[in-house]
């Protein structure tokens, strides 16, 4: 029952996680969407056994399941979270706005909430934790696994204005001096945890960034091929402490799936994906539109029309007058 979904970027304030919004292209798409929602709600509210219910729900995309969370009662959400496995729940929470995600996590056992967070993308976890009260946040961090805590500490070390705050640790890295066979073995072992595998990043023995390699090149290479021949050593990169405003134009020029982010010693810290770059551009455009309309912040776009007009009309009239004079 898997289906192809169309998504469009929905902009939130800078520093917040971008959530995907479903776009209905025509009436039939919308009707299909409503049918899926009704089906999922029917399954959750049925008296089917947990095993049957899980099997049925696993046929749906995680985004569809995330969409019905607001329609469920607290008891129904708890029921759903008891039935689905942790990996699927983590995928579902990836599609939920961080503020809502924090509220839903607060409804469940704290250990289960920590387990879900441990399986989510690191940058998303950082955003969700910002929405949780300090004491509860400290408890969740204490209960999360060591690797997840370490990854979050790396990202949290950057200011919101720095590109490092938007990176993810979901990537594959391999030593540059391995054979093709050894590289394939290493890829398989890391792919169990990291699914961002289309580009493989190469590092030296001291973890210095060396270059990158396309997955398909590794798969199609003969075992006697030198790995060095497959590595692109001129692959683009940025430093984690670079300001987003300073490097966004450079990032937009690249057509790579992921761009590595390095520390000041040229060690590989993480990557920024092409989707995150698109999200950054969306943020930038949202701010530009707000400024063009005389708004002081992107949040002002949510103001009631009457209040917004009262505050901006003088400035808009001034701009109109200036435009008339110039023309």
UniProtKB/TrEMBL annotation:
One of its GO terms (cellular component) is membrane. Residues 231-287 form the CBS domain. Coiled coil: none annotated. One of its GO terms (molecular function) is magnesium ion transmembrane transporter activity. Pfam families: CBS, MgtE_N. Keywords: CBS domain. PANTHER family: MAGNESIUM TRANSPORTER MGTE. This is Magnesium transporter.
